[in-house]
Amino acid sequence: MSHILAPRITQTDRSRRLAAAIALAAWAALCVSLLRSLLPADGDLLWELVVFSGFFTYWTNAAVALAVTLPLLAPESKPGRFFRRASVVTGVAVSITLVAVVYELLLRSGWGPLGIDLLLDLLLHYLIPAAFVAYWWLVTPVGRLSWRGPLSWLAYPAGYAGFVLVRGALTGTYPYPFLDVGARGYLTVLSNVGAIGVAFLLLGSVFVGLGRLTGR
Fold it and tell me: Which sequence ranges are marked TM in the entry (predicted)?
C-alpha cells in the first residue's frame, strides 16, 4: 500500500518538453560514449565493455534517461510508475548532482577533452545534470519529501561502490583513481567511499531541506 500512497511527480506540457529534450541528449550521449569505447581500431570489445560498465557517470546518466523516458512513453507500466515516484526522481537528481560535483572537484583537472569528447563531457557532467535538476524541481511535490529519503537513496552509490570493488578484485581495473585499490590500498579507498557517502547524504539533505522550505 505504501507505494500507492507515495507522492508522485506531476507532469505539465513544459516538463514533458524538458523531459523529451533530456531523454534525447542522455540517450545520444550514452550511445556515442559506448560506441567510442567499443570501437577502437585494436580494441577487445568484451574488455572495453567491462571498462565502460564501471563508470558511475554512465550508470547515473542512464538512470536519468530512464527517469525521463519511461514516464513519457509508458507512464502506467510498472517501471513507469516507479520513475513517477517523487522519492525516486529526487534520488536520481541527487545522484546526478553528485556526478557533477565529484567530477568538478576530483576528476576534471586530470584530462582535457577535445572535439566530440568535449561535447560528451559537457553533456554528461554538466548540461544533463543541470537540466534534470530543473526537471526535478518542475515535477516533484518537493514539500512532501521525507528526511529519511537520503538514507534510502544511499543504497544506489553504496551498491555501485560494492560492485566496483568486487569487479576490481576480479579484473584489477578501477574506473576512478580514488577507487583504485591497487594504487591506494583498501583503507584509503574505503575512506574515500565513506567521504563520498557522507557528501551524498548531505547533498540529499539539501534537496529535501530546500523542498520542505518551499512547502510546495
Answer: 18-39, 45-74, 86-106, 118-139, 151-170, 190-210
